[in-house]
Amino acid sequence: MALCIYLVPWEPLGHPLGTLGVAAVLPLIVVLTWWILQLPPLRDGPRQEVGPRLCTWHFCRSPNSGAVSLTGKMIPVAEFKQFTEQQPAFKVLKPWWDVLAEYLTVAMLMIGVFGCTLQVTQDKIICLPSHELRENFSEAPCQQLLPRGVSEQMGGLREVSGLKNNLDLQQYSFINQLCYETALHWYAKYFPYLVVIHTLIFMVCTSFWFKFPGTSSKIEHFISILGKCFDSPWTTRALSEVSGENQKGPTTGRATATVEASAGSGKANEGEKEKVLVEPEKVVTEPPAVTLLDKKEGEQAKALFEKVKKFRVHVEEGDILYTMYIRQTVLKVCKFFAILVYNLVYVEKISFLVACRVETSEVTGYASFCCNHTKAHLFSKLAFCYISFVCVYGITCLYTLYWLFHRPLKEYSFRSVREETGMGDIPDVKNDFAFMLHLIDQYDSLYSKRFAVFLSEVSESRLKQLNLNHEWTPEKLRQKLQRNARGRLELALCMLPGLPDTVFELSEVEALRLEAICDITFPPGLSQLVHLQELSLLHSPARLPFSLQIFLRDRLKVVRVKCEELREVPLWVFGLRGLEELHLEGLFPPELARAATLESLRELKQLKVLSLRSNASKVPASVTDVAGHLQRLSLHNDGARLLALSSLKKLAALRELELVACGLERIPHAIFSLGALQELDLKDNHLRSIEEILSFQHCRKLVTLRLWHNQIAYVPEHVRKLRGLEQLYLSHNKLETLPTQLGLCSGLRLLDISHNGLRSLPPELGLLQSLQHLAVSYNALEALPEELFCCRKLRTLLLGYNHLSQLSPQVGALRALSRLELKGNRLEALPEELGNCVGLKRVALLVEDTLYEGLPAEVREKMEEE
């Protein structure tokens, strides 16, 4: 569909209606053109490329007849659409005074265009020679034509009626042009052009910040995000949920406060709360009233939250938008005063009669002319109309300045939105972000209210929760259930944005392991996990409502917490009175490492195992709170030196003690006071001498001693005093020899001396008749004593990576042998007596394939039998 305006040629300029008709119609054409540009492109069937069209026109004046005609040419409106296509988007940042200023500039522009049209279509000035007497030649040529009465006009003039001036058309045109340039005041000549220029400057000042690269990019980004936030289904859902919560009344609010009360703040009313929450496991969560979002809408809302975060960080850094808006407003005010002053001064210069005195006697025979400024009367009216519009425009600019400076526009508070929606975590914003929100409020405050939803972390967490529930269905979670090392049915979730609510539908879960999940708040649905006994929180801070503390305090048996600092351990962990094992991992702050203060453990009445991995300088004093029933204590210090261990003496019931990577150079004397101690692990310390090993005879129940991963160079002879020792670990040290008295530890069943520098073994090892496991791999042994094969109960013999050149046939005497490692030696052949080791199979014989192939076929067949 094409839209075009066709103008027919007008009559000659001699007809006054023709001239005024052109002047009157052209502004209407401009208004119609501006209105057409606001229309959306029209469609005409399948021809989508066809849109509105308008016509351009130009004036043609006949040199003979003087007629003026308008000819037109069709131009698609789409070519002009680029100048206005951004305006509908930017309208949200235009307050009422900017909109009013826009209409005023359009009106002023029409005045200017109308005046310019008159300048183009009509003669600017019409002059006639003045027939005054010679003696009165010095008087003004138009003095007699001023309105002083007819008689006065006729008194000083001679009869000129019907007189011919003997001037042709070209002379008149010459005189008209010359007098127009010299006699007419500049204001009367250029008034319409000045109006157009000033109006264009006003228009540029108003929309400059929409075009300037440093500001337009931020504005376009903001408007794009604002529109998406306004139309997002999540905005409607979040506000609806808040409205539903607010309508529940004060009763629900009190119940919520009771559920979310912390353990520390609720101790005073603990008895009362227990009465109210007698059966917390029966808490049922109500489904939300609002329809769930689909997965696509949830992902779009999630992306919007990220965009809003990044945009806020970017825009709050500066105030270029605020500064630019102030500058263009100040410029408009200055421009307004300048225009007002000079227009009021020069508007009286527009006069209907103009006296013109030029030296053209030689050309025309006259030097004095009386001229008629044909548009003076209309221009004077337009000037006063223009001044009125400028005054109104200036008032709007002054009000804009007042609005800019009477309140802090670089700060924006969402206090009213927080009170209305109940989202108390919506942050206040500043700088350009705040300024744009102030402008948005002038357009429609609903925009900022809906936009604030995407500034709330609570809203974001709800959205994440919704997306999680979509992604992690109960069926998908059941596929991740596995038995852990303790045989419990465990669900392990790692690096999720939150904890899915669907987890609590798996009532069969016995162990819950959460790793790298931020800001967990257990919902009332946790009470559905009636079989839960083990909880692991690895870099996953969690909040537990008081009602759920009552539910878990007698059910949980094992808790593992790993965090950056130990002060981040949730306080409710220390109130689980049914807890049997507590494993904590984290660092003390440097200023607290020496004090090593840990929360009181007095409530943990059934705690048997305590594991602490930190950088403490001493054993925490609170460990003594559980001294009466603690059976296993593990301290892993990651190389930090443990200086004070005197608290260990009070752990009378302790059976197992681990002091790993504690920087110990000697065996602490406090250990020898632990009469019930059965296992001691001093792994990865700096032990060089173990002369204190004699004092272990006071630990009569000690059966396992782990001194591995140290720098021990020798074993003292009084190791023979440890007759009740069953397991001795001395691997990864610097041993080169073993004392013969080691053979007197008759109860020894396991001896690990691998990863040392041993060159030989004492024959007295053959006295260890209870020995079942011997590891001497990664040493420098060249031969084995024959007495070693007298250890008939030996089941595991690890001899790999030594310098053995042969294996004694006596190995066949080890009938109970089920695992033999020989790899990495210098053996040339294996004794066929290996066939007598009835428990030894091929999979447990670690040796080179060539050596194995050298065994007799019947021996190999026997080893390969199932």
UniProtKB/TrEMBL annotation:
Highest rank taxon of the organism: Eukaryota
GO biological process: cyclic-GMP-AMP transmembrane import across plasma membrane; monoatomic ion transmembrane transport
Catalytic activity from the UniProt record: taurine(out) = taurine(in); iodide(out) = iodide(in); chloride(in) = chloride(out); 2',3'-cGAMP(out) = 2',3'-cGAMP(in)
Lipid bilayer topology: Multi-pass membrane protein
Annotated Gene3D superfamilies: Ribonuclease Inhibitor
Signal peptide positions on this chain: none
PROSITE patterns, A to Z: LRR
Residue numbers spanned by region Disordered: 241-273
Keyword Glycoprotein: yes
Family: Belongs to the LRRC8 family.
Protein name: Volume-regulated anion channel subunit LRRC8E
The organism of origin for this protein: Lynx canadensis
Gene name for this UniProt entry: LRRC8E
